[in-house]
Each structure stands twice: as C-alpha cells, then as structure tokens.
Amino acid sequence: MKKIFFLTAMALVLFSCKTASITNAKTDRSAQVALKGNWVINSVTYPGSEYIKVNSFQIADSQCFVGSAWKFVSNNNKGTMALTKFDCPAFSSPITWYINANGEFVLKVLDAGEKAKKVRDGYILYVANQTESSFQLIDKIEVGGKLTDVVYQFQRAN
C-alpha cells in the first residue's frame, strides 16, 4: 500500500512539474496566414556587421541570405528557401515553420525527402514589424558575452 501511494505521489509531482514546450504552444493563425506567399530577404543587419561574420542557420554567412527567396505555405506550415546570391554557396531546401502565440517563429530546415518530425534541431526567431508587404525575423546571437539581434528584413516578392 505504501508503494502504491509513493508511486502515485511521484507521478503527480512529475506530471505537475512539466514545463511548457515552445513546440506545444498554440499557433498564431492570423500571423501565419499573413506570411503566405513568396518573400525575399532584402537586408540582414546587426551591430558590428562590418567586423563580425555570422553563420546563419548553419548554412552560410548572413550576407548570403540577402536576396534569398522564401515561400511560406500557411495551411500546412511548409515552404522552401533558396540562396541566390553570387559568390555564395548554392543552397535550396524545404522548410517547416509556424508562429506560436508568443510571436516566436519556429523554423526547421529539412533535407530533401526528410520528414519534419525526424528533424530535432530548429531555430526560434521573433517576428517583428509585420505588415502586408514586409516583416522582420530577429535572431538572438551571443557576441562578446552579450546577446545581439540579427535582423532579417523580408519584403513580399512580386
């Protein structure tokens, strides 16, 4: 009887201490629908960009993302992204994405044919200044022991 009571008490403690996961958060459907379509990154800015190189999404230098083409499909949270800048590595990939209720943009870059649920690593960025024709994704990186914002400025493609 003591064992059953102890196991029940332990189970209650474990389940009541569960932390909220960013991937289980409710999505912001209106913000997601507003991103539906084709976009281009027209600038990547951060303090010290003339001295510091940032490797964005473990793919390429952040400046290689200027001019990159992104497609967001809001009804299934899929899309594509492709680097198109001269003198940068050629890269194209399917992606999965969503915006949670906290305004956090969750992104996974997939290999061809790979299912999103098999990919464990992703990126959490913040959506800012969202309008019909533009928005920003802000990544936080550590530079010299302090957090710095890397701002990806998106413009709707024609």
Automatic annotation (TrEMBL):
Give the keywords, sorted. Signal
Q: Which domain of life is it from?
A: Bacteria
Q: Which residues form the signal peptide?
A: 1-25
Matching PROSITE patterns, A to Z?
PROKAR_LIPOPROTEIN (PS51257)
User: Which named protein is this?
Assistant: Uncharacterized protein
